[in-house]
Design a protein that fits this description.
Helices cover 51% and strands 11% of the residues. By secondary structure, the protein is an alpha/beta fold.
Length: 238
């Protein structure tokens, strides 16, 4: 069986990569891991977890990938305005790797940097919209970041349910052990809501966009994508 992890949220991606790239878990689950960028000609080896699928819409998923009948997957969505906020601070301070345009972000005002991020995420936002409005496949589960990571307790519970859905394991104790090592408080070293803009796990709470995104940035987003872009995905404008 193959497992697909689709998400543009940096916290979710980092957390699941920590889990899926840990060889001890591979040995237990009997899976390999590969980044989506390593997939050639749409062919996926058996028993492989494919992570960070960010640029394929659900409506194109089975056209671009050669998928057998035996698969499970999940798409983790997040309020686009939180994605913008999170990306801004991540690109500015904490994201590892030289592929992030830190110098570009540092050279811009906060508003213009966020507008730049909106343009950079244009395709990924369209992909997320497509998944949330068209996916009706019971072998994929749609997860909302804000609900999944609401607090440490809900994260542990949600991870138990997710791992069972993915058929990685039915062992509650093992999943709980893994989940506890990957909660916000454990990875961030502090309680959710204690915001540290320079930490890769920045806030741990939802709706920080309300104090971070100016009217200029919001108007640019809504003019570019339309307000229905937000509401169709069941997020509120205010």
């Amino acid at each position: 069986m193959n497992i697909f992890h689709c998400s543009i949220t940096k916290a979710a991606t980092l957390m699941f990569n920590i889990i899926f790239r840990n060889n001890n878990y591979y040995n237990y689950f009997n899976y390999n891991h590969t980044h989506f960028s390593q997939i050639k000609n749409g062919t996926i080896p058996p028993n492989t977890i494919v992570s960070q699928i960010t640029k394929i819409k659900y409506s194109n998923f089975f056209k671009e990938l050669n998928i057998t009948d035996d698969y499970r997957g999940f798409y983790m969505a997040r309020d686009p305005r939180e994605v913008i906020t999170s990306a801004y601070y991540s690109w500015l301070y904490s994201h590892p790797g030289g592929h992030i345009e830190r110098e570009k972000i540092q050279s811009l005002s906060k508003d213009n940097a966020m507008i730049y991020i909106i343009d950079k995420y244009d395709l990924e936002f369209d992909v997320m919209y497509d998944w949330l409005t068209t996916c009706d496949n019971n072998k994929f589960v749609i997860i909302r970041f804000e609900e999944f990571f609401e607090n440490d307790e809900s994260q542990i519970k949600n991870m138990v349910n997710l791992f069972k859905f993915l058929k990685l394991t039915q062992d509650d104790k093992l999943i709980t052990k893994i989940a506890k090592k990957n909660t916000f408080s454990h990875l961030g070293g502090r309680k959710a809501g204690n915001i540290n803009n320079k930490h890769h796990y920045r806030a741990g709470i939802k709706d920080t966009w309300k104090t971070e995104l100016s009217d200029k940035v919001l108007n640019y987003l809504y003019d570019k994508k339309g307000e229905n872009f937000i509401t169709d995905m069941n997020y509120k404008i205010i």
